[in-house]
Amino acid sequence: MIIKCPYCGPxxxxxxxxxxxxxxxxxxxxxxxxxxxxxxxxxxxxxxGSHREYWLHSGGCRxxxxxxxxxxxxxxxxxxxxxxxxxxxxxx
Amino acid sequence: MAEIDSPxxxxxxxxxxxxVAAGIGVSLAERRxxxxxxxxxxxxxxxxxxxxxxxxxGLIIDNKPGLGRVAGEKSVFGFAPGRFLVTAASADLETRLxxxxxxxxxxxxxxxxGRCVIRIAGPASEWVLSKLxxxxxxxxxxxxxHGRATxxxxxxxxxxxxxxxxxxxxxxxxxxRSFWTILGHAAEEVGYRVG
Lengths: 92, 195
Known about the structure:
The complex is a heterodimer.
Chain A: E1 2-5, E2 9-12, E3 17-21, H1 34-42, E4 50-56, E5 64-70, E6 76-81
Antiparallel strand pairs in A: 1-2, 3-4, 4-5, 5-6
Chain B: E1 15-17, E2 26-31, E3 35-41, H1 46-57, E4 68-71, E5 74-80, E6 83-88, H2 93-100, E7 106-110, E8 115-121, H3 125-132, E9 147-152, E10 155-163, E11 166-172, H4 176-187, E12 192-194
Parallel strand pairs in B: 2-12
Antiparallel strand pairs in B: 1-12, 2-8, 3-6, 3-7, 4-5, 5-6, 8-11, 9-10, 10-11
Helix pairs in contact in B: 1-2
């Protein structure tokens, strides 16, 4: 699989580390809702199709990336810097 | 400045090695007595920091991915957003950069003691490097002066093309002897000269 890093250009997946599902939202830190935390930590939709996920370009520019990847074909439709897709205070 | 011991040690064996019957494909050498400085700009100060690097070194580059310049022993290139590696054969490079770049503009990290710089030059340099790194080393994709951050298995490397058929490899000092040995094995096929 090739991921096109916005800074480095196309690189082999061996240079990247998967950093998790980017579609979930972390509960309020003060929340004591066990079910909500359980959903955040363990529940994954695992869709057959488009999926938002975080990757770290650990073997290159070391930037966190937001990748939209098709889970069935591995086709990547977009790659951007994660910081450009999260606002200050975002709890993902 | 005291001279730093080479991390390559007894593995640095000057002379010709490998299949040299048809000529020398590449020459390998360690660049010594360099000052190596990483400069990192804050997100909103990148153009100002590039101007400051230019005033301290005479090497001016634009803020574009991987862009760099080489002039003799001096070089600069970007390897990540807002991050630049500056190298010169003068001991006062860090002082000049610190006087030009305040903490309001960015940070300066001296890497002189942490990196080993290996120069590979010759007509087969692209061929040999292509065995080790999953990069396009052809000149249209990797122009003179430009830099790349990549890795060979778990050994990180910063690579700058310094001439049409020459590259500088910045390797972590602790991995340098191992990488040097691997590089020698990769170059045996084309014949190589050390020194």
